[in-house]
Amino acid sequence: MPRVLIVGATSAIAIEVAKAFAARGARLFLSGRDPLKLSAVADDLRVRYAAQVESAVLDVSDVARHEDLVGRALRCWGGLDVVLVAHGILPDQARCEASVAETLRALEINFIGTAALLTVVAAAFERQRSGCIAVITSVAGDRGRGSNYVYGAAKGGLHVFLQGLRNRLHAAGVTVLEIKPGFVDTPMTAHVPKGGLFASPHRVGRAIHRAITRRRDVVYVPWFWRPLMLGIRLVPERVFKRLKL
Ligand SMILES: NC(=O)c1ccc[n+]([C@@H]2O[C@H](COP(=O)([O-])OP(=O)(O)OC[C@H]3O[C@@H](n4cnc5c(N)ncnc54)[C@H](OP(=O)(O)O)[C@@H]3O)[C@@H](O)[C@H]2O)c1
Predict the structure, then answer these.
(1) Domain of residue 104, residue span
(2) Which protein residue has the closest C-alpha to ligand 1 atom 20?
(3) Residue 45: pLDDT band by 50, 70, 90 thresholds?
(4) Which of 20, 42, 62, 188 sits 20 to 30 Å CA-CA off 234?
(5) Is the beta carbon of 18 within 6 A of some atom in ligand 1?
(6) Active site annotation includes 49
(7) Centroid of ligand 1 to alpha carbon of 2 (angstroms)
(8) Angle at the Cα of 70 (from 65 to 76), degrees rounded to 5?
(9) 34 CA: nearest ligand 1 atom
(10) Contacts of 143 (CB under 8 A, 6+ apart)
(11) 221, 207 in Cβ contact below 8 A?
């Protein structure tokens, strides 16, 4: 049964992935920044699925604690088969434009903290010569748009980071999975008017569990975002810059 570390485990999407793993007897190590939410998620998984669940509090911006977290999770289950990185914030683009501090905070949580953590995880998985590193990025990373390019830049940067990691770790038998959701109905998008393109966290969580199990490289969830984003990437820049997106 897989041993799974989930970072950002209180995320609505991550909870659904954790449920899918717990239902199949996986052993889970959960990490999140809010101790109360984290213990509520862990307790729920224990009660619902009689799952083996351990947890540790971590704010991902606290990069000095990453080694400790990964080490604890590895020792807890005698190794790890899957690490899912799910934390993230959706910054207010207008506030980012007005504030360097706001822009840097978004980049720090969404990109710097994630890249730092992945550096620790990659070294551990390279040593054990197995495992799946799964990271939730976003379709927003596929093309910069005026309305959310700070968030998109962090996710796009992660896309390149993960490509490189995949290329490096393939020889060591380690899978690197990038998950690109479109709109998902979670607390992150609570303020966004809902339309037909929104998916439920349950649907997205199940798709992520499936992609991890099948050792995929890159998945769009739901699937229709792949052709949609291909179309958006194909629009020439001289046309794209004129669109209000
Ligand atoms: N919802 C969407 O439409 C959508 C679309 C594409 C990609 N995504 C990505 O999917 C992932 C999960 O998001 P979600 O939709 O499930 O939203 P969510 O429920 O709001 O989850 C976001 C999670 O990130 C955690 N977090 C934020 N900053 C953190 C930090 N510094 N250290 C540790 N944890 C931190 C939050 O912790 P707290 O609970 O303590 O706040 C929360 O658990 C994110 O990477 C997001 O960018 C979401």
Answers:
(1) 3-240
(2) 188
(3) very high
(4) 188
(5) no
(6) no
(7) 23
(8) 125
(9) 40
(10) 152, 229, 232, 233, 240
(11) yes
